[in-house]
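Hi R.,

Here's the chain you asked about this morning:
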Amino acid sequence: MSCMSPNNACPYPGDVSFHENEGEYFFGRENEIQAIIDKLTSWRLTILYGASGVGKSSVLRAGVAYEVKSRAKENKDLYGNYGWVTLVYPPINQGHLNQDGSDDTNWKNPLQGIKNSLDNIINKISNKQTESLEGKSLSKYIEQVLNCIRDDNGENRLFIILDQIEDYLLRERKLEDAEFERQLVQAMEDRDMNVSFLIAIREDALSKLDHFKYLIPSIFDERF
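And the predicted structure, written out as tokens:
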């Protein structure tokens, strides 16, 4: 049995997660996708948990992120800008190293990695010179993205999805982790920014989120 797609690659990845650009091949979970988008638009922070292998990453990447991107394209045609944008971190195509050999695309250095991902969004969307964000806080990066995507109706909303966060919680702690957590919580608590967060985690690692309870007492208020 052969499997063909427009680029001659098999559209069914098996045990591997679907990418954000493979949403056209991902189907059958439309109700879950819409339910997650509803959570993101209604709550500041949502926890998505489930057993390993149930397809959380695929739903978030080829489902939620792909759907938001499709709606944003329609919004741009109607109202002059995207209005909505989703960042799923870490990128699924990891392994691109910096010149010094470090890797900012996984949970080893999430603060710089998320900033770099937000900067990539800014560079793709903005057609004008933007303020340099080097050395700025995570909140400043988020503000810049929101400014870049605001449409003619004043709509601007950013969804930040932190996927497989157990990889962060289960690894050895680093000195810079405290600063990442401080800036992440600061962004979550800034009600002047129209940003929502979703944390995706394996069910057997859910208790590890207790680490954040002293920073975010309401972390378990909205679970899915």
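The CA atoms of residues 68 and 214 lie 32 Å apart.

Let me know if you need anything else.
M.
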